[in-house]
Amino acid sequence: MAGEPAQRLFFALWPDPAVRAALAALSARVKLRQGRWVRPENLHVTLVFLGAADARQRACIEAAADAVRGQAVSIALDRAGWWRRPQVLWVGSSATPEPLLDLARQLQAGCEGCGFPREARAFQVHATLARKVFAEPPAFDFGPIPWRVAEFALVESTLTPAGSEYHVLRTWPLGG
Prior knowledge:
The chain has about 180 residues and is an alpha+beta fold. About 25% of the residues lie in helices and about 35% in strands.
């Protein structure tokens, strides 16, 4: 374990193929003046970002995730937005079910017990579609994208010359 490189980790909701395809199709329809689209295979909703974790910390967060008791939920990605900082175009849900908020809280608490700081921002269901979007994009309409969230994932982010690559390391089912 000693000397092993740290992994860049986060917990996420990982879309099933139908949701991923709907998000990719939406991205293909939106016209941006500038920005960099997130590759379809990287689309996700972050629950808790951890950053660099060594093998001991990874074991700790996996044990914390094992203890999480969550419930499967249905959400609709039904709104879009743009954040000036960090310059992202996103789609999200106008209503976050309490079980999803509870899942994020449980994971955050477990990660704090493993030495990771608490996220400054409250959890908000959103999937980043594009980065480096320097100006507010024109409004666009789209129908809701339904998503049955039945699991959460531990994901590794690897930086490459072509950008980040995400790899699902492990998943946990949600009850119900």
